[in-house]
Design brief:
Distance between the termini of chain B: 51 Å
Order of helices and strands of chain B: HHHHHHHHH
Order of helices and strands of chain A: HHHEEHEEHEEHEEEEHEEH
Number of strands of chain B: 0
Largest sheet of chain A: 7 strands, mixed
Strand content of chain B: under 5%
Largest sheet of chain B: none
Number of helices of chain A: 8
Helix content of chain B: over 70%
Number of domains of chain B: 1
Structural class of chain A: alpha+beta
Shape of chain B: elongated
Shape of chain A: globular
Oligomer: heterodimer
């Protein structure tokens, strides 16, 4: 769909990866000078560069959130429930070798090696808004390819109505998957799901990178989905399996608290979380709250998927 | 405990209670308040309010269990610091989080049970802080003052429930606070029950004694 307003920023506005590198060197230097070992540990080491042309039509016209914020303030319960756990514990995750099993109601089920996916599907950059169900948001320049391209390749059968995503289950790499004193945080492995038409929507991105580099571990390496009009938890990370089904797949947060996290979980300022308002959000890096937009600002592209549905009931 | 030791202990508690605030200021200066500073500061101030409030609630149980009297002298200090932190917590919510959007805040207070609970806890601490001076004890009379200050239990319960209700599924820190509160309250209630039993027994012995005197 055409976007009427012209882009207000260019890829020049995204801080060059080299700058992060030099920043880290500076930090290491400073740490050495002040004899404070470990000071540099908080800074995310820059990953392998991954170049991609930006898809301007599908990109937000806002400057992206600082890379530092996007890689140190994460909800990724596989590592732990605190925002800094993912960045701290991410080195334990091994994103290679990695395979993604695509099966279920498809004509051509196949297990893809992650590198094969890189070869098969050309990637592009898309600057999307990310709205967390907790009431904060970011702007992230993702790199990936439409999930639709992969789904078309495996040819869903006529019975396929839903797509299920399964995150890696491995308590050795994901300490958050081990039981704590009060039991498990969530019912592992993390599973998420979309209706097939949502999964085939051109905005739905299988994501392998961000900020001009391969996806950092704490952001869901090596491959995750990004569904920008839904709350962040719908976008499953570190995916090992994509399964097409005829019935609505059970999803992790819905199982944990069904009255709070629905299967759809579209960003909706009019439907509150039972315990807090969703009318406003804090964009990371900004001081004042800003109003939350229906479908996170993607209403003109996705609202038609839900015509005739009561979004208060199907929250 | 000697006078000097008591003063040293109080000074240490004073200093200790200021460490969380000092740390926040230090992190602010270093621009190290996470990517979401307002949320982080609110949470940290809330955490310390509850910790210090529970510490003040622990003083009587410690006295009961260890049989020492010095914890009682720390109750007021800890209680006032809990009030200090809850005021900061509340101010951050008003000023930094909602920036005086009274309409939205009022909506939240009425609509969100966890915020209602938090407000209840804050409100119940106000009369306690206001009557914390020795002069006020005298003016109210020890008995009435003591009765009023039982509100601190309401504040403790409200604070823990506030945390319990706002915490996301999968988090577990809130249970530790609730468990601590339950432990402290049961020591307190156990003591009340024990004293009631003892009083009844004493009364009975007294009656028996009187009866024996009348016997001959």
């Amino acid at each position: 769909m055409l976007i009427r307003r012209a882009p207000r920023f260019t890829s020049n506005d995204i801080t060059d990866a080299k700058l992060y590198l030099s920043r880290r060197e500076w930090m290491v230097g400073a740490a050495a000078l002040t004899l404070l070992p470990g000071e540099s540990a908080a800074v995310t080491p820059p990953g392998q560069p991954l170049t991609a042309t930006r898809n301007d039509a599908q990109s937000l016209r806002e400057p992206p959130t600082k890379f530092e914020a996007a890689t140190t303030y994460n909800n990724f319960y596989e590592f732990g429930v605190n925002k800094d756990d993912p960045a701290r514990l991410a080195p334990a995750l091994k994103p290679r070798p990695w395979t993604v099993q695509v099966d279920g109601l498809v004509h051509k089920p196949k297990t893809y090696d992650i590198d094969e996916l890189f070869r098969l599907f050309p990637v592009e950059e898309r600057v999307y808004a990310l709205r967390c169900v907790e009431g904060w948001s970011m702007v992230i320049p993702w790199i990936g390819f439409p999930l639709a391209s992969l789904l078309k390749r495996v040819e869903p059968t006529a019975q396929a109505k839903y797509v299920e995503f399964v995150t890696l289950l491995d308590p050795k790499q994901f300490p958050g998957q081990r039981p704590g004193f009060f039991g498990f945080a969530l019912d592992w492995p993390y599973t998420e799901g979309l209706r097939l038409d949502e999964a085939l929507h051109p905005l739905t991105l299988l994501t392998v990178g961000m900020y001009g580099q391969v996806l950092p571990n704490q952001n869901g390496a090596p491959i995750r989905v990004v569904v920008p009009w839904k709350y962040g938890f719908k976008s499953a990370k570190s995916i090992v399996r994509i399964r097409l089904t005829s019935a609505e797949p059970p999803t992790a947060w819905n199982k944990a608290a069904p009255q709070e996290y629905g299967f759809y979980s579209n960003v909706n300022p009019a439907v509150d979380h039972p315990r807090w308002s969703q009318a406003t959000e804090r964009r990371i890096g900004e001081f004042r709250r800003r109003p939350t937009l229906p479908f996170n600002g993607y209403a003109d592209q996705v609202a038609h998927l839900y015509t005739g549905m009561d979004l208060r009931k199907d929250y | 405990m000697s006078r000097r030791a008591r003063i040293a202990l109080k000074a240490a508690i004073w200093g200790g209670c200021l460490v969380p605030l000092g740390t926040l200021v230090y992190w602010y200066a270093r621009d190290d308040l996470t990517a979401n500073p307002i949320s982080f500061v609110t949470t940290t101030l809330g955490d310390w309010t509850l910790r210090i409030l529970l510490a003040s609630l622990a003083m009587t149980p410690i006295r009961l269990v260890l049989g020492v009297s010095w914890p009682i002298t720390l109750r007021r200090l800890l209680g006032l610091f809990a009030f200090f932190y809850v005021c900061l917590h509340f101010s951050v919510w008003i000023v930094l989080d909602f920036f005086f959007d009274w309409h939205r805040m009022w909506e939240d207070i009425v609509k969100r049970p966890y915020i209602t609970m938090g407000m209840l806890g804050l409100l119940s601490l106000i009369p306690l802080a206001a009557t914390s001076t020795a002069g006020m004890i005298k003016r109210l009379g020890a008995r009435r003052w003591r009765r009023l200050h039982r509100l601190v239990y309401l504040a403790g319960v409200a604070g823990c429930v506030h945390f319990l209700w706002l915490a996301k599924v999968g988090r577990t820190d809130q249970y530790w606070y609730v468990a601590t509160l339950v432990l402290l309250l049961s020591i307190r209630l156990g003591d009340v029950a024990l004293r009631a039993v003892r009083r009844r027994r004493e009364r009975r012995t007294a009656t028996v004694a009187t009866a024996e005197i009348r016997m001959p």
